[in-house]
Amino acid sequence: MSRVPGFLMPHLRNAGRAALDLILPPHCLSCGVEVEQPGHVCPDCFGSLHLIGHPSCRKCGGPFTSEAAAGTDRLCAGCLHDPPPWDEGRAPLVYDEGSRRLILGLKYGDRTENAALLARYMYQAGRDMLGPDVILVPVPLHRWRLFRRRYNQSALLAHELARMGGCAHWPDALRRIRHTRPLGRLSRAERQEVLAGAITLRTCRASGVRGKHVVMVDDVMTTGSTLGTCVRLLRACGAARIDVLCAARVCPSGEGHP
């Protein structure tokens, strides 16, 4: 059987995509209405997304209402009072009704195609964090949760980002060895108690992070407790720099949309 010449492959793929679109028109990844291009959201759903632009807190990625509110250090009140253990943090989206549909669809609804769109937003927000010398490490899931969900949504986001940024992707670097309950309503001390010993770094990866730039990847930054636990493990193994890149960031009451 003869092989198709390489220069024809893009044309064949485009023709195949066009034929598929005639049979199954592309739909908005958020609400499901028809759109012109696959892998996108409709204008109404795009308008409901609150993108975090400049200025934002350089530690947690939360939006400031103005340049004056950001100040010269670009740290929010929470990060000034209790700095997270990573170097810089970014998130392209405020976690609210608009972004929630995309993220929960990815997380619980088998909408794995949402990962590519969310990763594109993440790449725009954290492009300067990414590159060939960077290792992307997703926040791990416990094996029983992974078994029920069949995939780790943070690992899917990291995979897409690795492709866009030319980074290394280590989805197996961290393990969650104990199932933990939701942390959102717990105090800081309670969160630390729940997470103590719940996540470990695989021995085979420990030496590989020494002196490296690592970017932790997650879907939503809420309290930052789980990310902080992961960062401290990587820091203890000698990572030179650790940043955090999430799809969305929960904004505490009082923080305005950009």
Describe this structure in words.
The structure is a single chain. By secondary structure, the chain is of the alpha/beta class. The protein has helices spanning 9-23, 43-48, 67-70, 77-81, 97-108, 114-126, 143-149, 153-165, 188-195, 203-206, 225-236, and strands at 89-90, 93-94, 134-138, 168-169, 174-176, 199-201, 213-221, 241-249. Helix content is 38%, strand content 14%. Strands 1, 2, 3, 4, 7 and 8 form a 6-stranded parallel sheet that branches. It has a two-stranded antiparallel ribbon with strand order 5-6. β7 (213-221), α11 and β8 (241-249) form a beta-alpha-beta unit. The radius of gyration is 20 Å and the shape is globular.
SSE topology sketch:
Elements: H1 9-23, H2 43-48, H3 67-70, H4 77-81, E1 89-90, E2 93-94, H5 97-108, H6 114-126, E3 134-138, H7 143-149, H8 153-165, E4 168-169, E5 174-176, H9 188-195, E6 199-201, H10 203-206, E7 213-221, H11 225-236, E8 241-249
Helix pairs in contact: 6-8
Describe the global form. globular
Specify the biggest β-sheet: 6 strands, parallel
Helix proportion of residues, in percent? 25-40%
Order of helices and strands: HHHHEEHHEHHEEHEHEHE
Number of distinct helices: 11
Estimated structural class:
alpha/beta
Report the oligomer: single chain
N-to-C CA distance: 57 Å
Radius of gyration: 20 Å
Question: Care to give the gist of this entry?
Answer:
With 258 residues, the protein is of the alpha/beta class.
Task: Provide the descriptors you would attach to this structure in a database record.
alpha/beta; six-stranded parallel sheet; 258 residues; 11 helices; two-stranded antiparallel sheet; globular
